[in-house]
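hey all, quick one before standup. I had two proteins in the batch that finished overnight and I want to keep them in one place so we stop losing track of which output belongs to which input. First protein below, input sequence then structure tokens straight from the run.
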Amino acid sequence: MGITDLHSAKSPDDKVAIVRKEAAQAPTLFLGDGINDAPAMQAATFGVAFGVQSDITSEAADAVILETSLGRFDKLIHIARASAASRCNPPSAGWP
């Protein structure tokens, strides 16, 4: 995935600032598990709520992973890539 930097123990404002800085350079994904992550999820190109901690977090996210398992996040990424590939390369016969 090309992850080169890790940030932890940041305030909600710090998270938003980091996401906005990165989003100015490339599409961003923010994975969060708490209400304090909601603003950064909305600032990101795509926000993912990890577990169901609050309604606010779930509403701010573009996707919600109900289980707090990185394996489920990996599955979400694979499904998204497959979906994007099928939209870019539709079957030639019978495609609407």
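OK second protein, same deal, sequence then tokens:
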Amino acid sequence: MEAKVETRPVVQVQTQVSEEAKSGKPEEHEVKMSGRGVNVFYGEKQALYDVSLDVRDRSVTALIGPSGCGKSTFLRCLNRMNDVIEGCRVTGEIDLDGENVYASQVDPVQLRARVGMVFQKPNPFPKSIFENVAYGPRIHGLAASKTDLEEIVVTSLHKAGLFEEVKDRLNESGTGLSGGQQQRLCIARAISVNPEVILMDEPCSALDPIATARIEQLMEELKQNYSIVIVTHSMQQAARVSQRTAFFHMGYLIEEGDTTEVFTNPKREKTQDYITGRFG
């Protein structure tokens, strides 16, 4: 049989869209978080330059760009994880529901309950599966009784698509799970405290293709209730899972917009060069 050769762009957009989007009108959501004029310094070195970017409610925003471009630095600004880095200084304003998260009266611990984070490498606590998920609700006082706590744990594991796989071994160590299961356990841990935003810093970089597909499917489900911001080196992943994409380069936000538009009709030449593989 004669082989059929098909020419296609480097990145094929395969996002799942709503009926509104299919009609040519991208679905709009309210702004959940916004950054305005954000600069980040590590000592004397500046890592981000005057970044302004909105994160929309109940949607996935992907941050892409080459290594060292500032995308993870910006992500960590959203829940003040940069506070724990010695010598790090952030200027500008980042709002959550209109409130500046860097205001003096904002408790970073409470902020991180509202803006949860899933890291690049799965990092379950050296505790049982149950205790990994129960830890957050317990310290934040979200459960009035043992029954309430058990309900939160089960619900969170269901939302993370993990309960059926671990329901008979909740008392076993979370570190004994596979890599993909550990990452879903970390997602269950993050959502157990009822966050409004979930930050994901390359959550699939250490996972195999099957586990990666499960995490991407989970993001599609979770965006019905949460705002999600994901840092990824995979442009194919960004195209598959996100509704908005922001391209960073050398500490600057080069372009941001509807994912399909960014990948098929970028406005900036540098964006075009990156998504077609000319650098990065």
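Flagging for whoever picks this up: Confidence is low (pLDDT under 50) at residues 1-26. Residues 30-275 form a domain with the Rossmann fold fold (CATH 3.40.50.300).
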